[in-house]
Amino acid sequence: MGKSDSDFYLFKGQFLYVSFSLILIVLFGIALFTVKLTANHIVIFSIVLIAQVGLAIYFKFLHQDIVKRLVDTEKNLLDSEKEMKYEAYFDDITKLPNERYLLDKIKENLHVNSFDKAVLVFEIDRLATIKASLGSLYSDRLLSMVAQRLQNQLSSQFIIGKLRNDQFVILIDHYQNHDDVLNFCKQLQKMMETPFEIQYSSLNYSLNIGISFYPKDAESENELINFAQIAIYEARNTPDHISFYETSMSDVRTAKVTLENDLYNALKNNELFLEYQPQVDSVTGEVISMEALVRWQHPKRGLISPGEFIPVAEESGLINPIGEWVLETACYQTKKLQVQLGKPIQIAVNLSLCQLFQENFVQTVQQILEKTELAPQSLQLELTESMTMNTAHLIPILHDLKSLGITLAVDDFGTGYSSLSYLGDLPIDCLKIDCSFVRKIQQSTSSEPLVDMIISMAKHLKLNVVAEGVEEVTQLNYLMKKECDFIQGYLISKPISFEQISNNLCNLQHKVREMITISQFNNTQ
Ligand code: C2E
Ligand code: CA
Ligand code: CA
Hints:
- There is one protein chain.
- By secondary structure, the protein is an alpha/beta fold.
- The protein has three domains: 3-89; 99-245, 2-Layer Sandwich (Alpha-Beta Plaits); 263-524, TIM Barrel (Alpha-Beta Barrel), CATH 3.20.20.450.
- It is 56% helix and 17% strand.
- The model has no long low-confidence stretch (mean pLDDT 87).
- The structure holds ligand C2E and calcium ion (2 copies).
- The site of one calcium ion (CA) has 5 residues, from strand 13.
């Protein structure tokens, strides 16, 4: 009910009341002149009149109170309406226009004039990792500071907003040429060079920027944003982190988006499973360990290799739940195998960088070990060389992991670009020679300097060394001659299912011992 309605009803009530009082007074007046009134009549009439006056005063106050309450209610309604409007149109972290408002604004703008326009979508580089390692309070603060900086430093003529997925959007209303837009993008990136002071730390961040043009690429606001988002995907992997949309990008991106969506369901629907590849002691021929390798049985596409879906999982942040599932399943199945074999076979599990920087990662590993009752000495975590670049952040985490009693290996060793000096600083136990070096071993007699160097460096640093991708007997002979500690590759066994490894390990063991003995014999000739 509106204010005017309530006024009308109150007025109507008062009008009836006043009319009724007047009728009473008139009736009494007539009675006074026509009937002979006694003192009793006058007393009764006076009481009625006093009651009338009392009621009139009471209604007056009642009216005031009702009106006041109605005004208050209306004010509250207006306030919450404003709040609702704000929530509907503004992002609560950055206070920038949200997706809905932004789309309306861009749509409006596209129809105002026929200038060529550009839509920029940009994001803070590796925000998902920042969120995983420093928490969402930190990343929200960072987003709001970036928004503030944009608003302070850009002219108010720009339409700036934020999308649901932590990406920002800017509409350039009018540009002369391609370089104009490129320069503007560089200016945006430069703005982020001044460090952000958050939680006693001072860090600067870079931006990935994707651009689409109106009307060249698309004519609708939705498509323009979508295409700029596709371009951002490419921007993440280009040196200047800026990418202009091209039609050829759509197919690749659409395939990635589909894969990402399917991957969300893969864990829930039990489509992931592990295979195990044995690692053998080059002196005794014992299978001492195995590497867990994740596989995805896609309901439509069939088997998808980790080389295809792990990068998608890493980009989408899905690697954290997937990695946790891999770790728990690998520990659980290894414990089962240990009980069955009556010997402490080890397990090596691959890690992605995001997992390592995940909050409470060390506790997660500890809990999984406790839950599966696997001895910590039986678990080795594999890091890739590129992960070891940010050593300042990494070293404390690695020490915490080591204090659980587990061991650490550097995978794909020799393929990274980091300086070798870091090796001495990291609390690692093992180097895995990348298969690309092993593949170069053609003859057991010729020299393969890089393999020699890695093995000798590992020996000096008192680290174990594993050769991966061993496919040929000549490679095995060479590696054994150079005293490489452990051998892994198709020559020993391809990655196999848990059932296969638990049913056939004895046969496999037998075959491998024979192979190693023959190699030892060949090397002594
Ligand atoms: P990686 O850790 O270097 O794993 C070794 C890869 O080499 C495996 O490929 C394995 O099947 C393959 N391989 C083993 N022996 C031979 C051989 O003799 N010849 C050849 N040509 N290849 C051999 P796969 O299983 O396709 O895994 C590819 C990569 O995916 C892995 O490389 C690893 O980086 C990643 N990955 C696999 N499982 C996981 C996981 O659970 N988590 C994470 N973060 N990454 C994983
Ligand atoms: Ca590995
Ligand atoms: Ca490897």
